[in-house]
Structure formats: structure tokens, C-alpha cells
Design a protein that fits this description.
The complex is a heterodimer of chains A (338) and B (618).
Chain A: H1 26-36, E1 47-51, E2 66-69, H2 75-85, E3 90-96, H3 97-103, H4 105-114, E4 118-124, H5 159-165, E5 170-175, H6 179-191, E6 196-201, H7 213-216, H8 218-224, E7 225-228, E8 235-236, E9 243-248, E10 251-256, H9 277-283, E11 292-299, H10 305-320, H11 325-329, E12 334-337
Chain B: E1 13-15, E2 18-26, H1 31-45, E3 48-54, E4 69-77, E5 90-93, H2 96-102, E6 111-115, H3 121-126, E7 143-147, H4 149-156, H5 163-168, H6 171-182, H7 188-197, H8 202-222, E8 228-230, E9 239-245, H9 246-261, E10 265-269, H10 276-283, E11 291-294, H11 298-310, E12 314-319, H12 321-337, E13 341-347, H13 364-369, E14 378-381, H14 387-402, E15 405-411, H15 412-416, E16 418-422, E17 468-470, H16 485-500, E18 512-513, E19 519-524, H17 528-540, E20 546-550, E21 552-554, H18 560-566, E22 569-574, H19 579-588, E23 593-596, H20 605-617
Parallel strand pairs in B: 1-8, 2-5, 5-6, 6-7, 10-11, 10-12, 12-13, 13-15, 14-15, 19-20, 19-22, 22-23
Antiparallel strand pairs in B: 2-4, 3-4, 9-16, 14-21, 18-20
Helix pairs in contact in B: 1-6, 4-6, 6-8, 7-8, 9-10, 9-14, 11-12, 17-20
Classes of the chains: A alpha/beta (338), B alpha/beta (618).
Chain lengths: 338, 618
């Protein structure tokens, strides 16, 4: 089908009623994805969205592509099999903080470790929504929820640090309501060869409203958000009150610019360093001490899994030819009875 | 390959038609290898054969202890046999522990070859012997052949500069040489195998060959045995044969299914005993485009297979009991999304970790019912090592034709046991070709084939067929998520009916034996050999008996109920506590007689024969 260049957002909207709660951050993410897909120049039938269980995992039903709403935590496993069997497909995984980091933690880290070319969008709302508001593995300590009436006691995962620790070749963060930034980030993920892990802060206005207002409110954005841009210094803050991030050894520090300090003194962001150390340090920048970094933390080229699988097979077929079933059955010591 | 037997001295040669030999030693003594070599050579001689490896779960339990004993039983015959034999005629015991754990099963008057080099106080203590069994009369009634195997091997390898440790590791081939002499076997195929196996260590190859020949010569010169035996080739159907174990046959069956269907094979698995060797075998066959995926866990293994199947591959996962439990939720997803999936379960002793290296048939109910909700799927069982090949093809056929997950049950006994396999003509294998849906006209993901009720297999990448599937209940036809009560009930029945219709395609059940017998023996899975042997024996003894064997356990063959009703008594032997019996009673209201064994070891022919005779006399 030659329609690939003429696709529009509408082509990716399914005929199903969207059933997320009014005001849910998922709507904004759906909109951004439907914006990005037609711009990629890829025929619609080559997209597959694989999801697990949870609010975010209803995503495939709302996209007019191939889709697979699977079981809790297992989307990376199913997507891995699909991508390895069909490297020609664009396989996107949509998951949430409970789905990816709790019940499905093992599959997430192994998909990233293998560098299977999946685009993994983790909608992080720091709460269990579909099961009605229990704390999640990204909830802050002390979170009072239906399952933790006197406050949760276990510290949260840092999803980006986890992804980097698993060896992810592309790691990024964006925010549901930062549409422009989100679209940009999704484009970057789409273009990456290998696993692309994108954490998307997503507001659950029913069970965890205002989870991210410390950085998303207009009033908080200037001081609360740090844009990571390749080749640019780590600078944030309102006009006239600019600040920057510099490193004292491996300890990050916020410094005010002006009075002799300039952007030149700040760390210049490099998403392509061989070592993930800088990305890991950036992932540790947490409020209230630091602004929250968004953007691409890491984007490096590494061999991807599905290509390597195909190459092993191709190399052996090139050397030995395609297998003959007859010869295979007759392998080893045979004898003939006449 | 030539099969010339070295010229022996003038000691009398006695023809026997059937002999059972058990090699037993420490886990590190190479007993599995020794047994396999004896098996291969006997196959080349043309004997019918059947093997039973029996090894501990520990890789190397402390040397010389009872838990560390590894054994390999092989039966060779000049006629058609079905089991590895009830009681060994010859036992090779490499140490006191091996003697202690195996002597009880040796036939009265049987030959026991003991490696006296290992018979000392320390070894007796490890084997919990209070006295020297060679001296205390406990071996009276057996023909004991005492050989200083370790010492003789070292002496034979005097010229080799490989160290005593390496020399001692050749002693199993000294023992094998002796057994080859005793049963008039040629040495050449084992020599060839050693030279190939140790191609990069020619001194080790040469030392093992020397040990093998020395064992043979030792018997020839010293006269350890008064008589030697010959077992003539068995009359077998003409054709080309190879010796094969169940896991190998299964793997080849999956490759064949891939070829015959034109679908690439994707095998997702996580290492588990005794299924791992299926993964190992398939990993060798990249020439056939086979993708093997060693997943991070059992769940990922089945999920990846489902993903591959969604993409149009032949998605297969393999495991053993505990792994099947972990896969349950994902298998249920395949039930709901109605994708083809083959799940191989090489059963082992349970529950929990159970007896990892021992055999059992105790996962039948897990396979049939071990999932949440009403979850019908197809369940098949392979009946012999070579039958694993056909069963794999059958499983792939059902999965792809009926768009349904299939659980294929084998077990540890089939996985590791071997038998001669008459190689099929490739052109005679079933044609499994199919077409993916490609026409967007009137497409909906849950529109069904009128005959099979299968939904179309519409794979991503096909223009115009974009659709969503998932674990939520579907509206029939459109495949849209549906919470409609009537639709759920309808879909529940449709999924069950779809599985039932698999029975429309099945070949008729064959009643073997006497139609008018009082007793019908109903078997499934790996008990085929023991049941066949038992029924044959009973009939040879002048009684009437009949048997049927079930390949398909879900759905059951249509005519099964009528057959069961025709017989006065129905005996159901199983290596569990009566799981098929429960199903047959529930489904057909037939008062079947359950006969069970859960010892991690297969039934013997004698056990089943005796039970049939009891029922006949009842």
C-alpha cells in the first residue's frame, strides 16, 4: 500500500470508545502517539502495540493498528517473541509502573539487556489505578493509599536508573502534558535502533492527582524542569534567574548563573557517552533538591537482539545451505534392514 | 559401518533372544555414556532395543555415595520388544554403592560384574555396607565376576602420559569392552565415536580405545566368563533406522512440522530437567531457520512463543511440570486470543520440585484443567521415544488448523529412553500448509470457519486487517471487548465446541487384541510399552485380553465411550494416582479399575501382566 506517506492522525484512531476517566493523562499520550505515527512514513499495518494490564494497557484498543492486550507484566516477553520472529514490524510496548516495574520487572530488564528493538512507553502515575488506588513501586515513601492506610514504607524504584542498570541503549523521560516535548521524545524513540525506554509522567486525576504538579504547574516549570539536550549545558530557571548543574567530583550541585558563573561552568549534556555513568547521575537528580530532568538521557548504538538472531541463522545457512529434512532425519548412525 | 565381531577363542557361544543389562556407577563414572554406546552398537547389529536411563538430580553427588549412583538399563532382543525390561540379567557395578542400589533388581542367577578396585572399607562405609558384600554371602545366588577394573585399566594404559586421573576415567570403557565380549558385539562403532568425540584430544581418544580393547581382550584371555552370548538381529520392518530418544525425536518432529507447514519455528524455553535437551537439539538446527530463545523465565518463554505465533510463526514452548504451572496464565491468554501454540511438557515426578530426573504422568489434570476459568485446549501424549516425532507433528497440525493451544505431554522416561526409529519418508509426512488471512473484505478477527470454528490467522503486516486481540472477553465475530453476559456464555461454549471438533479429524481408535476379551487395558503416554508387553504376554499364556492407547486426551476420541462400555472390566494403568481414571469415570460413567504407580520409575511388563491376570481370575 502506497498510502504510507499520506497517513494522518485519523488513520490511527480506532472505532472504539476511549474509556479512560475524563481528565486522565493517558488521553494526552494517546494524542501524541497518534500524532507521531503518521509522521514516521511507515505503513499502518506494520505497527503493533503490545500492552500488559492496567489503565495504560488499554492503549492498543484505541489505536487502529495491530494490537495485543496481553497479561499483567508480560508485554515485553510477548513483544520480544513477535519482534524476533518479525523484525519487519514496528513493535511498541505500552505499560505502567505496576505492570513494568512490579509484576513484570524481570521481563523489562531482560528486554533492555538484550536490546530487542521495542519502543517501551512506561506511563508512570505512581499509583495502581485500575485496581483502585493502591501504592505502586514508584510511589513515594509514606504514601497513604487503600492498601497503606498509615503510609507506605518501601522506597520507590527509579525507573530510569533501573533501565540504565539493565543496559538500555535508549532512555528518555517526558511528561503527558508537555505535548511538544513528548512528541519530540517519541520521534527520537521511534528513530532509535534497539530498545527505547521512555518514562512518561502521567497524572492520575482520580487516585493520585497532582503527583507531578511540583514540576508541571506553570509556576513550577522554570525551576522544576531541567531539559537534557545533547551538546547543551544543563541550565534551567526563569529568565534572569538562570541556574545550572555542575559536578563537584561526582556530586551534582545547583549553582546560580551570573556573578561570574556562566553556562560554560555547567555540565554539557552528552547522551552518547560510552559509559552510562552521566545518564545514571542525571537519573538521580530528584526534587526537591534538584529540578527533574526530562529529555533523552542516553542514546547509544549497540547491536540489537533480533538482528543478531537473524544474522546467526543467515550465516549458518550461507555456510551450510538451507537444511534438508531428509538429511536431518538421517543424521547419526543409521542402519538399513532389507 | 561394518559389524565384524573380533574373532574370539573357542569358548561356547550361547544364543539368547532377549537380555537386559544395567550399567551402574558413580555419577562421574560415565554410565550414561557407556550405556548409550552399548545401545548404539546393538542397534547397528540389528537388535530391537529399549533403554531406561536412571540418574540422580545432583550433577555430582559425593563420590561413592548411594545418592550419587547413576544407572543405564538397556534391553536388546532378537524380536520386537516394548520395554527396557523388568529385571536385569547382567549388572555392571562400578562401586559398592552401585551394587547396593541395584542388586535387588537383578534376576536370580544373574551375572554381576563388580569393580573390586573400589571395594574397600571406606567405600563400604559410604555405601552403608556393614560388611564386604563379596565376602558375607549376600551375593550367593548370583554369578559374581570380580574384576579389578581400575587397576587393570591403569595397567593397560601404562604407556600413556595422561596421569592417573585421566586413566581412571577410562575404566568405563574397559567395562564396556568386557560386556561387548560377553555379548559378541563389534567394537568399531564405539572406536569411531571415541575418535570423533575426542578429535581434539587424540591421547584421550587413544586411551579410551585402548581401555575398550583391553576389556575385550581381558575376557578373551583370562576367561572371566565361561560362556559368551549372541543375540541375533530382530526381524524388523524393512527400511532405514536410527536410534533415537524422545527429546531428540520431539525436536526433529517440530523441525519437520515447520518444514511441512512452511512456518518458521520459534522455540521459547527456560532450562529445566528433563526438557532442556529439546532446546539443545533445536539450537543446532539454525539451517532450518529455527529460532531458539532461552528466555529469562518460564513465563517469558511461553509469552515469546505466543508473540511469535501472533506474528505468523509456529510458536512452541517446552518445559516440565513446575514450568507448566508458571506458564498457566499465558497459556490461558492463548486460549482467549485463539492463537496456535504448542506447549511441550516433559513430565517428571511432582509435586513442586519433586523428582526432577524421574518419570511420572502426574500432570494430566494440570494440562487439562490447570488454568483459571473455563479453559479448554487440546492435550496430546506421546507413547514412545520415536512416537514423540509423530506427536509433535500432530500437535502442530491441531494448533494451526484449529487455532488453539495444544499441550503435548511426554515424560522423563520417553525423553531419555531410546529405541530404534524407522525413518519416515519426508513425502509421507502430513502436509501442514495453510494460508494466513489476507483479504480485508468482510474481515473480522473472530469470524469462524464453519467446520472447525477456528478464527482466521491474520498476521501483522497484512494491509487492511489491523485488529486488536487480548485477554478480555471478546464479542464473537468482531472481536471487540464485550462484557455482555449472553456473549460470554456463548463464547465459553464456542471455545469448548472448537476443541471438541478436533475429534472430528482423528483416526479411529484401534483395539489391539481380543474384541471379546473380559479385560480392556486403557493406556496413555509412555506406558504403551509395558502395556503392550503385558497384554501380549497374557495372550501368549492363553488368555484373552485387549488394549487401546490414547494419543488424544482432549478432546477424547468420539468412539471411546462405546468401546469402554463393551468390556466387562477396564483397567487403567497410570504413573499417577488415577488421573485418567478420574476423567473416564466422570465422562463416561464407567467403573474403570485404576492401577497406579508413583515411584519415579515406569511400570514393568510383569506388574501389568499380573494385574490383568488377577482381573481375569476375579
Amino acid at each position: 500500500m502506497a498510502e504510507s506517506t499520506t497517513l494522518t492522525r485519523k488513520d490511527f484512531q480506532s472505532d472504539q470508545d476511549v474509556r479512560w476517566c475524563p481528565g486522565c493523562g493517558d488521553y494526552a499520550i494517546l494524542k501524541a502517539v497518534q500524532e507521531v505515527f503518521p509522521q514516521l512514513g511507515i505503513p499502518k499495518e506494520r505497527f503493533v502495540i503490545v500492552s500488559g494490564i492496567g489503565c495504560s494497557s488499554r492503549f492498543p484498543y484505541y489505536m487502529n493498528t495491530y494490537g495485543f492486550h496481553t497479561i499483567h507484566g508480560r508485554a515485553p516477553g510477548i513483544a520480544t517473541g513477535l519482534k524476533v520472529a518479525r523484525p519487519d514490524l514496528e513493535v511498541w510496548v505500552v505499560t505502567g509502573d505496576g505492570d513494568a516495574l512490579s509484576i513484570g520487572g524481570n521481563h523489562l530488564i531482560h528486554a533492555l539487556r538484550r536490546n530487542v528493538s521495542l519502543k517501551i512507553l512506561l506511563f508512570n502515575n505512581r499509583i495502581y489505578g485500575l485496581t483502585k488506588g493502591q501504592y505502586s513501586p514508584t510511589s513515594e515513601v509514606g504514601k497513604r493509599t487503600s492498601s497503606t492506610p498509615v503510609g507506605s514504607i518501601d522506597p520507590p524504584f527509579n525507573p530510569l536508573a533501573l533501565a540504565l542498570g539493565a543496559g538500555a541503549s535508549f532512555v528518555a523521560r517526558s511528561v503527558d502534558i508537555f505535548q511538544k516535548h513528548l512528541i519530540q521524545t517519541l520521534h527520537r524513540a521511534a528513530a532509535h535502533k534497539g530498545s527505547a525506554f521512555v518514562e512518561i509522567y502521567q497524572n492520575c486525576n482520580i487516585f493520585n492527582d497532582h503527583a507531578f504538579t511540583y514540576m508541571t504547574d506553570k509556576a513550577n516549570r522554570a525551576d522544576g524542569v531541567l531539559h537534557l539536550e545533547h551538546g547543551k549545558p544543563l541550565v534551567f530557571g526563569a529568565d534572569g534567574e538562570e541556574k545550572g548543574i555542575r559536578f563537584d567530583g561526582i556530586e551534582p550541585q545547583v549553582m546560580s548563573l551570573g556573578n561570574g558563573a556562566s553556562a560554560d561552568d555547567c555540565l554539557v549534556w552528552d547522551e552518547k557517552t560510552n559509559s552510562p555513568t552521566a545518564a545514571f547521575l542525571a537519573a538521580q537528580l530528584l526534587p526537591p533538591q534538584f529540578p527533574t530532568p526530562i529529555g533523552v538521557f542516553r542514546a547509544v548504538d549497540k547491536p540489537n537482539f533480533e538482528t543478531a538472531v537473524g544474522e546467526q541463522i543467515a550465516a549458518i545457512q550461507a555456510r551450510d545451505g538451507e537444511g534438508s529434512l531428509e538429511a536431518l532425519l538421517n543424521t547419526g548412525d543409521t542402519w538399513t534392514v532389507s | 559401518m561394518t559389524t565384524t565381531v573380533p574373532q574370539a577363542d573357542s569358548r561356547p557361544v550361547e544364543k539368547v533372544s532377549d537380555v537386559v543389562i544395567r550399567f551402574a556407577g558413580d555419577s562421574g563414572d560415565g554410565m550414561q555414556l557407556t550405556g548409550s554406546q552399548f545401545t548404539s552398537t546393538s542397534a547397528l547389529v540389528g537388535n530391537d532395543l529399549s533403554t531406561l536411563p536412571d540418574f540422580p538430580a545432583e550433577i555430582r553427588a559425593p563420590a561413592g555415595t548411594l545418592p550419587g549412583v547413576s544407572a543405564f538399563q538397556v534391553r536388546i532382543a532378537d524380536y520386537d520388544i516394548h520395554t527396557p525390561g523388568d529385571t536385569p540379567d547382567v549388572l555392571v557395578a562400578m562401586n559398592p554403592a552401585a551394587l547396593k542400589t541395584n542388586i535387588g533388581e537383578l534376576i536370580a542367577g544373574g551375572v554381576v560384574i563388580v569393580n573390586t578396585s573400589e571395594f574397600n572399607k571406606r567405600a563400604f562405609k559410604k555405601a552403608h555396607y556393614d560388611s564386604d558384600p563379596l565376602e558375607d554371602g549376600s551375593l550367593d545366588g548370583y554369578r559374581v565376576v570380580e574384576v579389578e577394573l581400575t587397576k587393570l585399566t591403569r595397567e593397560a594404559l601404562g604407556d600413556f602420559d595422561i596421569g592417573n586421573r585421566a586413566k581412571d576415567r577410562c575404566k568405563n570403557f574397559f567395562a564396556l569392552g568386557m560386556v561387548y565380549w560377553l555379548f559378541s558385539r563389534p567394537l568399531d562403532s564405539t572406536i569411531e565415536w571415541l575418535e570423533k568425540k575426542f578429535a581434539k584430544k587424540p591421547d584421550i581418544a587413544a586411551a579410551n580405545v585402548k581401555a575398550l580393547k583391553s576389556g575385550w581382550n581381558y575376557c578373551d584371555i583370562v576367561g572371566a566368563f565361561q560362556v559368551r552370548y549372541e543375540i541375533e538381529p530382530a526381524p524388523m520392518q524393512p527400511g532405514t533406522y536410527r536410534n533415537i530418544n524422545g527429546n531428540q525425536a520431539l525436536a526433529l518432529g517440530l523441525v519437520a512440522a515447520s518444514r511441512r507447514s512452511g512456518l518458521p519455528l520459534f522455540y521459547g524455553s527456560y532450562p529445566i530437567t528433563p526438557a532442556s535437551s529439546v532446546l539443545h537439539e533445536l539450537a543446532k538446527h539454525k539451517q532450518f531457520g529455527v529460532i531458539t530463545f532461552q528466555a529469562e523465565d518460564e513465563i517469558a518463554a511461553v509469552c515469546a512463543a505466543i508473540g511469535a505465533s501472533f506474528g505468523g510463526a509456529l510458536g512452541v514452548t517446552g518445559t516440565s511440570g513446575p514450568g507448566l504451572a508458571l506458564k498457566s496464565e499465558a497459556i490461558n491468554l492463548a486460549v482467549m486470543v485463539e492463537l496456535p501454540l504448542v506447549v511441550v511438557n516433559v513430565q517428571r515426578g511432582g509435586p513442586s520440585t519433586g523428582l526432577p530426573t524421574k518419570t511420572e504422568q502426574s500432570d494430566l489434570l494440570q494440562a487439562l484443567f490447570g488454568r483459571n476459568g473455563e479453559s479448554p485446549l487440546a492435550v496430546l501424549a506421546a507413547a514412545s521415544p520415536a512416537d514423540c516425532f509423530d506427536a509433535a507433528l500432530d500437535a502442530a497440525r491441531i494448533a494451526t488448523r484449529h487455532m488453539v493451544p495444544v499441550i503435548l505431554l511426554t515424560d522423563g522416561y520417553l525423553a531419555n529412553g531410546a529405541e530404534p526409529w524407522l525413518l519416515p519418508e519426508v513425502s509421507s509426512l502430513p502436509d501442514l500448509r495453510l494460508e494466513f488471512r489476507s483479504d480485508p473484505e468482510d474481515f473480522a478477527p473472530y469470524l469462524r470457519d464453519e467446520t472447525t470454528l477456528a478464527r482466521p490467522w491474520a498476521i501483522p503486516g497484512t494491509p487492511g486487517l489491523e485488529h486488536r486481540i487480548g485477554g478480555l472477553e471478546k464479542q464473537d465475530g468482531t472481536g471487540n471487548v464485550s462484557y455482555d453476559p449472553a456473549n460470554h456464555e456463548h463464547m465459553t461454549h464456542v471455545r469448548a465446541e472448537k476443541v471438541r471438533r478436533i475429534a472430528d479429524d482423528l483416526p479411529p481408535l484401534e483395539i489391539v487384541g481380543d474384541d471379546d476379551a473380559k479385560v480392556l487395558v486403557v493406556g496413555w503416554g509412555s506406558t504403551l510399552g509395558a502395556i503392550t508387553g503385558a497384554v501380549n504376554r497374557v495372550r501368549e499364556e492363553g488368555h484373552k485380553a485387549a488394549r487401546i492407547h490414547l494419543r488424544h486426551l482432549s478432546p477424547l476420541p468420539k468412539e471411546l465411550g462405546d468401546i469402554l462400555a463393551r468390556f466387562d472390566k477396564v483397567l487403567v494403568p497410570e504413573m499417577n494416582t488415577g488421573q485418567l481414571a478420574l476423567i473416564l469415570r466422570g465422562q463416561y460413567l464407567v467403573d474403570v479399575i485404576s492401577f497406579t504407580k508413583v515411584q519415579g520409575r515406569p511400570f514393568t511388563r510383569g506388574e501389568i501382566r499380573d494385574r490383568i491376570v488377577e482381573l481375569l481370575e476375579d
